[in-house]
Amino acid sequence: xxxxxxxxxxxxxxxxxxxxxxxxxxxxxxxxxxxxxxxxxxxxxxxxxxxxxxxxxxxxxxxxxxxxxxxxxxxxxxxxxxxxxxxxxxxxxxxxxxxxxxxxxxxxxxxxxxxxxxxxxxxxxxxxxxxxxxxxxxxxxxxxxxxxxxxxxxxxxxxxxxxxxxxxxxxxxxxxxxxxxxxxxxxxxxxxxxxxxxxxxxxxxxxxxxxxxxxxxxxxxxxxxxxxxxxxxxxxxxxxxxxxx
Length: 245
Known about the structure:
Helix content: 25-40%
Largest sheet: 3 strands, antiparallel
GO molecular function: protein serine/threonine kinase activity
Number of strands: 8
Structural class: alpha+beta
Domain HipA-like C-terminal: 16-205
Number of helices: 9
Distance between the termini: 47 Å
Protein name: HipA domain-containing protein
Radius of gyration: 19 Å
Shape: globular
Pfam families: HipA_C
Family: Belongs to the HipA Ser/Thr kinase family.
Strand order of the largest sheet: 1-3-2
């Protein structure tokens, strides 16, 4: 994709000059705003401090398709990447992800990212946070980094099926009904100022309805999602209340 001209080219040919490699997620049905919701979630994630690749919606024949730059390609060359599932197939808890972060000697900023993404996934209702949705990249010198986040999307069936609230990745054994205390306890000896990061996530997710209006999401759908979000994480530390004071 050429960001200057807006031109798309097939990924099966050599990368032309001034083009970057992107992925397109096509919207298949008019009655389900999947691509718009993913765009909204990408904006909320970025506002929460999550490292995201550039993305946008491309309208074709009246449908918005989600377009995002690939993190595993640069200047036409492939960047080595591995999912958490490939490195540790049994990883089903964010604490195990932390162990991998230590093993790969990830820098402090990547550990912060792990914490922020974990909190965001729980606050924003992304229960499909399985270990294939977390990746790492390695450069030519052998240095590992946490990749940018991807597939950041509300788990749609949570408003119809209460068991869908149960996350693929747990937090010290818990997979649903988490509290801000759980997040702070998890952060011990791993990240600094967890309360500040938690509030940043809450602030980002609080923009959901205004972003839905921006992208013309049907109010009935946005209200359904909002109803789910309102009951996901209990602020037992009263972080939101203390912020108002």
